[in-house]
Amino acid sequence: MTRENILSFIVTFLLSLLIVPWIGKVTKRMGIIAHTNSRTIHKGIIPRTGGYGIYIAFLIGAMLFLKTDNQINSMMIGGLIIFLVGLYDDIHDLSPKLKMLGQIAAALVVIIYGGISLKDFTLPFIPSYISHIIAIIITIGWIIGITNAINLIDGLDGLCAGISIIVLFTISITSLATGRLDIASLSMLLIGSIAGFLVYNFHPAKIFMGDCGALFIGFMMAVISLLGFGYKGSTFFTLGAPIVVLAVPIMDTLIAIVRRKIHHKRFDEADKGHLHHKLMFSLELGQTKSVLILYGATALFSLCSYLYLNHKVAAFLLFILLLIVFELFVEITDMISRKYKPILTLVNLVLKRDDLPKLKESGVYSTVVRKLKGKKRYIILPLATALIISLIFIHNNRKYRDIKVQYQEASNPTSLMKTIYSNIEKVVKSRQKKEEREYVAAYFAADYYSLSNKNKDEIGGTSYYYSKNINNFKSYAKTDYYKTSNELIEKKENNIEVIKYKLNHIETSNKRLSGLEDYNYYDVNLTLTFNQDNPILLSRSIEVTITLIDKNKHYSITAYEINANLS
């Protein structure tokens, strides 16, 4: 954790700590309070505008600590739209349709103006422009879904705020571990703003965050998660990691949708079937214990996401275990319906207990059997689905087997370059990404710093440099390493050649191109050895750092520098 991250947290925490109670007193006099009814749990007159304090504290913190660009600006504009929609709903009650329109508008701002959406999303047999449209639709759905999921869990004192802090802290430490300081800064600002509010919101609550707070927090977390925070390798991990971190609100929302569909209720019709309600009423745990249990569940799911960075098998096993426990909780507490008990039914095949559901009594089993009788299409449909999935799997496997190497071999490579390029071909086809980073950086360095294979005005490594910056690269090279290359070639003194290299380390880079901050960057540190003393560098061995960007399914060089002349 950097000093600036800690300072940003402290500032927004103190701001929120000061603003929230003042806002509560003012809005309480104005009558902006949480009204009691058959669905509410609280008693007394409690203002519902704590989200106003969260938003103001975050906004001030953002102005103090964030550097503005299109992405940040779009998030601020989208966040303002969401906040105003929620604030109006807290005061006047807004229709679900108008709230949805506001959320769509905010999502479009970050997509169109900020360029924030799923990256590199492709589907087999589907043209790229259609895949791009689908990616936009999924992005909008993701933002709206997470925004409302966070709003739906705002049902007990301190629940939404605490879960949000755990999720954002996980995003922050994961981002720091993978070099995404921008995401960590955003997360810490929001954590501080929410933490200051939580002081007054934990049971017994003196103020609620209201829709203005819950919707704003949900929107910000949805957009931050789209930035990737270290999982930019594929679309699956771009959303896969945040899905795991946000598992509690996501699963609660999905179950609520299914439950209301089964009981013929509207999606926006509130009930007491949520996770926190089941803990509080079905298990009679009370508010504080119920909230702490959900904090623990969120922390465990967050641990899965963080573990995946270095311990993939352990993360996967923990995730499966948590899903099984969650499913058992859903069945035991009748969260969906009294008849929905698939795992308990299967367990009872072994236990054969009278107090557990039996297979013949299972509502799911009876429904399936009844529908299948005399209806071949119910058998054909899953078979056809399985066939389609198999074809896609075969297509993807063939695509990987026939994968083409996108890296070019120089027209006149040195002996070392030939060896490195051979290794590049192998690791690309076997999808060994770490080794690919090493060999791409090594090939560029060997080509750039070798003059023995160059003609006049020729600069090495150009095909490996990031294409949009190639002109700047060439211009700089001519004033730097290649300043005297033509003279050496004319005198036939250009027998300078990199004959070997050693990999020192590879780590996530903080150096990023403007407008491409959401891609992964890597610093590859190498030691290069020449066949003789290099007259340009006045050394026979140098240490260099090559910076790569992971974009368009291959690596390109974005920067390079000599750290030291070793001999």
UniProtKB/TrEMBL annotation:
Coiled coil: none annotated. GO terms for molecular function: metal ion binding; phosphotransferase activity, for other substituted phosphate groups. It comes from Eggerthia catenaformis OT 569 = DSM 20559. It holds the Pfam family Glycos_transf_4. PROSITE patterns: MRAY_2. Keywords: Cell membrane, Magnesium, Membrane, Metal-binding, Transferase, Transmembrane, Transmembrane helix. The keyword Protein biosynthesis does not apply. GO terms for biological process: cell wall macromolecule biosynthetic process; cell wall organization; lipopolysaccharide biosynthetic process. This is Uncharacterized protein. Its cofactor is Mg(2+). The keyword Transmembrane helix applies. CDD domains: GT_WecA_like (cd06853). It is found in: Cell membrane. It is a multi-pass membrane protein. It comes from the Bacteria. GO terms for cellular component: plasma membrane. The chain crosses the membrane at residues 6-24, 45-66, 72-88, 100-118, 130-152, 159-177, 183-200, 212-231, 237-258, 290-308, 314-332, 378-395.
